[in-house]
Amino acid sequence: MSGADIREFSRPMTGPALVPLIDAIEAGEKPVVAAIEGMALGGGLELALGCHYRIAHSKAQLGLPEVTLGLIPAAGGTQRLPRLIGFPAALDMIITGRRVSAGDALKLGIVDQVTERNAGEVAVAFARSVVDCPLVSRRLSTWPPLCPADLDNILQMALARAWQRGRGALAPVACVQAVQAARLPYSQGMQQEQKLMSMLFASPQARALQYCFFSQRAVGKWSMPNGACWDNSTARPIRKAAVIGLGTMGRGIAVCLVLAGIPVIAMETDEKQLEAARRVVMALLEKEVQKLAVGLHLGLIHFTLEQRYLREVDLVIEAVFEDLALKKQLFAELSSVCHPDTLLCTNTSQLDVDQLATATSRPDLVVGMHFFAPANKIKLLEVVFTSRSSPEAVATAMQLGKWLGKVSVAVANCPGFVGNRMLRPYVEQAGFLLEEGATPEQVDSALEHFGLAMGVFRMSDLSGLDVGWRVRKAAGLTGPGVPQGQLLQTQQGYRYSPLADLICQKGRLGQKTGCGWYLYEGPGGHMARPDPWVHAFLEEYRRVHGLQPRSIGQQEVLERCLFALINEGFRVLEDRIVMDPVALDVIYVLGYGWPAHTGGPMYYAGEVGLPRVLGRLEYYQRVHPDIPHLRPSALLRQLVAKGSPPIHKWMWHIEEGSSRL
Ligand SMILES: CCCCCCCCCCCCCC(=O)CC(=O)SCCNC(=O)CCNC(=O)[C@H](O)C(C)(C)COP(=O)(O)OP(=O)(O)OC[C@H]1O[C@@H](n2cnc3c(N)ncnc32)[C@H](O)[C@@H]1OP(=O)(O)O
Ligand SMILES: NC(=O)C1=CN([C@@H]2O[C@H](COP(=O)(O)OP(=O)(O)OC[C@H]3O[C@@H](n4cnc5c(N)ncnc54)[C@H](O)[C@@H]3O)[C@@H](O)[C@H]2O)C=CC1
């Protein structure tokens, strides 16, 4: 039982109320034993907690995930669980919403017995054995709260953690407040639980998080402009895969494949690189084995320099340097080495997948599988299809992503695909704001206050500033042969900020070199500190270019950066790079640290109001006519003209034939 039907939350509810039902079961005179197979989540676990005994199958999972939907467990979960397992463990489960295995549930004391057999049959036998036992001590609501001496401290720390993890989300904080009320007699605690639930239930954050829940499932029902889709295309089985290039990304991808039980051929260019990769990959795998307490066959991965092993694989994921010529050459080689049916996938973050497909003997079997760093942690996968990708190839990549535990989103090929394409105007605005008077920490603090996991400059330092530098060089925007612009730098006719290039020229590439937009403890350090050098550098830059610095408020930072990103999102929709705006929201929430409690950038635009987004873009465009990314997209204008329809109707307003495919 995975809890309430979440769809019901936006409709009038019918049927008996859960709280009195659970109370009645608990108060009953006959012993009630919960037999748990599969999932006991949310209301499912709350129901089980109202039973007098709980027997779980060893594969069962238990949890109170309401916080991920912007809610609290409000059918007594916040009152019974702390009584059963104590405040610290209950707080941890309720604030994070994480699931625990049956084995861990037994250790915590949530279940009375774990079985390998049919839980229902075991529960019936168990019920017979306790039929005459008194039930008084089995009613959790009557238990006195287990208050340790340092409970105040525990609650304070939990509150601090909820604020920090929540990044502006209300539900984690309300979870702590509800659990705190478990110190009170049960009936008073329940009143508090209901009060907090009423506050959250109809909140915009809960609506946004529930939208995220369904969006992450909706993207699994992918379709392509040619009519191929999830239910008319068959995925191939992947019995063995290869990863070529074991740098930052390749290592993480190899780990994902092994954890999913897929045998992997892992390839590098030379013995030294191979050995370095082997050490890191094996260490990551051993850590996972310990953490998950699972048996994993570490022999599933074979490190090699020899291409002949590629003959046996069903799918290759290429993760070599971001260099089109290198990748094309590799894809041509793969065509002759691999079996003709082998799928060839690239992890490129922005190169033209069509061009790579052209370099092979099988363009229909070429797709992008764009993982996000760290690949073994981030749940997002962009599956990039070209005009020639076969439905089978797309279905296989989508299915493989799911098997690896990712949420896969199918997107059409275009520069930067979806995520990085929308990121460009956002990063660009941040650079302009520095020119106009802001500091990196002012910009980042506004964005992090909004709820982004990391501000733009901290994120750039983490990824490495050389990544974008290489892209800009390849695009002809900077580099030795490119003439410098005039007063305010212009390139290719538009405003261009060379600040990031200048920073790179100084050897400041971010965390890896110990400095970038911030200063770190040393190369590879993580603690970002404001850097007086950067401040002086910005002042000097403005002086040389005659720029009068001005004070820039939080609102302008948010509007310039976020609305520019959203505007590009509308252009992505116009180009039909995806079939539905929910895809953009899923990509940003899962891949770029966008706060889930705002739903994602496109949902957020709808909440702010499309007329407001349009109005502010028009305003900034008047002030900065030389920044094309601030020019409102045609689709945004059209939607506003049509009275701002809800997000699920946006695609109806795109003219036929606007697809780039
Ligand atoms: C104004 C005054 C108001 C006053 C207060 C009102 C008080 C109201 C009191 C209400 C008290 C109710 C308490 C309660 O019961 C709270 C809850 O239980 S909230 C729900 C908690 N449960 C969850 O969050 C579980 C969500 N589901 C999952 O985590 C996964 O789906 C699951 C692990 C169960 C299965 O995963 P998987 O096998 O990977 O399948 P999918 O995820 O793809 O799901 C398949 C399919 O099922 C749909 N679905 C799953 N769970 C739910 C659900 N709980 N409700 C509705 N639909 C669900 C999912 O969307 C998929 O559908 P498709 O159409 O196939 O995409
Ligand atoms: N680093 C990131 O955050 C992300 C990178 N990507 C993309 O993933 C790809 C790899 O990026 P990183 O892992 O960051 O690069 P990296 O520089 O860390 O690793 C690349 C690896 O490829 C190896 N290599 C080069 N040529 C090879 C060949 N012919 N055969 C076998 N191995 C070869 C190199 O020795 C190196 O170890 C790029 O296309 C990049 O754009 C995609 C998403 C995120």
From TrEMBL:
<dbReference type="InterPro" id="IPR006176">
    <property type="entry name" value="3-OHacyl-CoA_DH_NAD-bd"/>
</dbReference>
<keyword id="KW-0456">Lyase</keyword>
<dbReference type="InterPro" id="IPR008927">
    <property type="entry name" value="6-PGluconate_DH-like_C_sf"/>
</dbReference>
<dbReference type="InterPro" id="IPR036291">
    <property type="entry name" value="NAD(P)-bd_dom_sf"/>
</dbReference>
<dbReference type="InterPro" id="IPR006180">
    <property type="entry name" value="3-OHacyl-CoA_DH_CS"/>
</dbReference>
<comment type="pathway">
    <text>Lipid metabolism; fatty acid beta-oxidation.</text>
</comment>
<dbReference type="InterPro" id="IPR006108">
    <property type="entry name" value="3HC_DH_C"/>
</dbReference>
<keyword id="KW-0511">Multifunctional enzyme</keyword>
<dbReference type="InterPro" id="IPR029045">
    <property type="entry name" value="ClpP/crotonase-like_dom_sf"/>
</dbReference>
<dbReference type="InterPro" id="IPR018376">
    <property type="entry name" value="Enoyl-CoA_hyd/isom_CS"/>
</dbReference>
<dbReference type="GO" id="GO:0003857">
    <property type="term" value="F:(3S)-3-hydroxyacyl-CoA dehydrogenase (NAD+) activity"/>
</dbReference>
<dbReference type="Pfam" id="PF00378">
    <property type="entry name" value="ECH_1"/>
</dbReference>
<keyword id="KW-0520">NAD</keyword>
<dbReference type="Pfam" id="PF00725">
    <property type="entry name" value="3HCDH"/>
</dbReference>
<dbReference type="GO" id="GO:0070403">
    <property type="term" value="F:NAD+ binding"/>
</dbReference>
<feature type="domain" description="3-hydroxyacyl-CoA dehydrogenase C-terminal">
    <location>
        <begin position="416"/>
        <end position="520"/>
    </location>
</feature>
<dbReference type="GO" id="GO:0004300">
    <property type="term" value="F:enoyl-CoA hydratase activity"/>
</dbReference>
<dbReference type="GO" id="GO:0006635">
    <property type="term" value="P:fatty acid beta-oxidation"/>
</dbReference>
<dbReference type="GO" id="GO:0005777">
    <property type="term" value="C:peroxisome"/>
</dbReference>
<dbReference type="Pfam" id="PF02737">
    <property type="entry name" value="3HCDH_N"/>
</dbReference>
<comment type="similarity">
    <text>Belongs to the enoyl-CoA hydratase/isomerase family.</text>
</comment>
<protein>
    <recommendedName>
        <fullName>Peroxisomal bifunctional enzyme</fullName>
        <ecNumber>1.1.1.35</ecNumber>
        <ecNumber>4.2.1.17</ecNumber>
        <ecNumber>5.3.3.8</ecNumber>
    </recommendedName>
</protein>
<keyword id="KW-0576">Peroxisome</keyword>
<keyword id="KW-0560">Oxidoreductase</keyword>
<feature type="domain" description="3-hydroxyacyl-CoA dehydrogenase NAD binding">
    <location>
        <begin position="240"/>
        <end position="413"/>
    </location>
</feature>
<feature type="domain" description="3-hydroxyacyl-CoA dehydrogenase C-terminal">
    <location>
        <begin position="557"/>
        <end position="643"/>
    </location>
</feature>
<comment type="similarity">
    <text>In the C-terminal section; belongs to the 3-hydroxyacyl-CoA dehydrogenase family.</text>
</comment>
<keyword id="KW-0276">Fatty acid metabolism</keyword>
<keyword id="KW-0413">Isomerase</keyword>
<comment type="subunit">
    <text>Monomer.</text>
</comment>
<keyword id="KW-0443">Lipid metabolism</keyword>
<dbReference type="GO" id="GO:0004165">
    <property type="term" value="F:delta(3)-delta(2)-enoyl-CoA isomerase activity"/>
</dbReference>
<dbReference type="InterPro" id="IPR001753">
    <property type="entry name" value="Enoyl-CoA_hydra/iso"/>
</dbReference>
